[in-house]
Structure formats: C-alpha cells, structure tokens
Amino acid sequence: MSAAPPEIVVPAQPNETHRNAVLKALVEYNDSKVGPSCFEPLAILINDPVTGEPAGGLWGKTAYNWCFVELFVIPAQFRGQDLGSKVLAQAEDIARQRGCIGLWLDTYWFQAPEFYQKQGYEIVGTLPDYPRGGPRYFLKKSLV
Fold it and tell me: Quick check: 70 and 99 in contact, CB under 8 A?
C-alpha cells in the first residue's frame, strides 16, 4: 500500500515556524551534497549617539566561504561621514577572518550601486524593472 501524497498548503500568514521547516529541509539537502555551510550571522551596527540604540548598519551572513550582505543602511542623518566605507571594510575584514573568498550583495538602482563600485565591487548581474523603473544589481568583491 502506498503512502498518501504530500499536501501543498499556502498559509494565510506565513511565520518563522514555516520558514524554519523549509530551511531545515534545504540545509539537510545542501549538507548532503557539499558539506556544512559553516553559516554564521554577521551584524555591524551604527548606534545613535543620542539614544545609544542601533539606528542602522549591516546585517548579513557568512556561508560556503562567502559573505552575503543582506541589509545595509547608513541613516540619512549620519551620511557623509565615511561610515558606509568603514562598515563595509569591517565586514570585509570579518569575512577574511572567517575564511571567505569574497562578498556579494544586491542593491537597487536608486540606492547606491556607484558606492559599491567605488569600494571595489563589480556588477555580476541585473534584474530589470525591479522595482519598476530601474534594475536591481547584484555585485561581488573578491577577497583573494
């Protein structure tokens, strides 16, 4: 007797439990093919001098010998102080310490693609009209 087929479900309000179920299955598959990813989260925060609370910075991860910068923002009131270059350089240093061979990230046409290029990143791909009106860029920087 064969087992019933799996059911496909679309939750009305996806949550962290749903994400973790998908992630667990994906990690198990990936590990079976190429070994452990050596995943480590990465956060470099910019604290507001008045409140002492985080106001921006960088969020990412290292895995499979690469650092992925998922989120990166310098709040408007702190721009023009070279903080972006300093935070990104610190992420690169941490990536090197973790044995990474490069960093990658994505940014929109209206954000800062030129900033990343000035920091030595190269565009390796684009997704047109995301959001409508301009491309989303994918960039990388080699550390080796």
Answer: no
